[in-house]
Specification:
- The chain is mainly α and about 110 residues long.
- The chain contains seven helices and no strands.
- The protein has helices at about 5-20, 35-45, 50-55, 60-65, 75-85, 85-90, 100-110.
- It is elongated and about 65 Å long.
């Protein structure tokens, strides 16, 4: 490894240590909003059991998210984001009468 690259690597490691110790602020911060799972579920007018079945999680996991004891992370956070932003994805997963489907799509468009 060239000396200049090695020196840059060492400087980066020292900088990350200073950030972790609170001695320095990071140059940028990424903030991802927590999904409001209960609000998303209520948007669809589904019971906890039905919503959990549709998105492929256990009802206990859903209750934990809704009661803020736990929070979705990784793929689950992405799934909740997609379900909130693109209701047609979830509506295609189960049979919803057209009137309810139009109502849900209208609510989603208004957000």
């Amino acid at each position: 490894m060239r000396k200049a690259l090695f020196d840059d690597l060492i400087a980066s490691i020292k900088e990350s240590g200073a950030i972790m110790r609170g001695e320095m602020k990071p140059s940028r911060v990424f903030k991802i909003d927590e999904p409001d799972v209960k609000k998303i579920r209520l948007q669809y007018g589904l019971s906890q059991d039905k919503f959990a079945a549709v998105v492929g999680i256990s009802p206990g996991t859903l209750r934990g998210w809704e009661q803020k004891r736990r929070k979705p992370d990784g793929p689950a956070r992405l799934l909740m984001s997609i379900v909130a932003s693109h209701p047609e994805v979830l509506l295609d997963r189960f049979n919803v009468d057209e009137k309810k489907k139009r109502h849900i799509m209208k609510l989603a468009a208004a957000r």
